[in-house]
């Protein structure tokens, strides 16, 4: 999920979409095998994850990760919308993208206030061309 070369347009956008797909598939799989509803399984997975994945310090312990899982357990991947911050290609390096400042501000404001993301915030983003619904039927 960290590769970007040979995926999509070769920029960070392909890598981001791979990561979004992975997260949805991981959540779908965890729910389908009952990890969330089985405390022993959930703890074992969280413990392994904190030892094998570099995580934000706020999620670096199994207990914190389990708390997040508990908060999110009623959210289905089918009801998740993935969004990439509104961006444009860097004119000096087309493999890089740069945030669209005003549109990004709209996205963060909506998230802070628990409002829907305005469609106008993503209309001019090159990321909007690559964001797509992801199926997790694998």
Verbal overview:
- This protein has 2 domains: 99 residues, no CATH class; 34 residues, no CATH class.
- A two-stranded antiparallel sheet has the order 1-2.
- 45% of the residues lie in helices and 8% in strands.
- By secondary structure, the protein is mainly alpha-helical.
- It has 5 helices and 2 strands, in the order H-H-H-E-E-H-H.
- The radius of gyration is 17 Å and the shape is globular.
Helix fraction, binned, reads 40-55%
Give the termini separation.
16 Å
The figure for the number of domains is 2
Placed side by side, the strands forming the largest sheet appear as 1-2
Which structural class matches the secondary elements? mainly alpha
* Morphology call: globular
Helix-strand topology string: HHHEEHH
What does this entry show, briefly?
By secondary structure, the protein is mostly helical. It contains five helices and two strands.
Helix and strand topology:
Elements: H1 12-32, H2 39-52, H3 62-72, E1 87-90, E2 93-99, H4 101-112, H5 119-122
Antiparallel strand pairs: 1-2
Primary descriptors:
138 residues; mainly alpha; 2 domains; 2 strands; globular
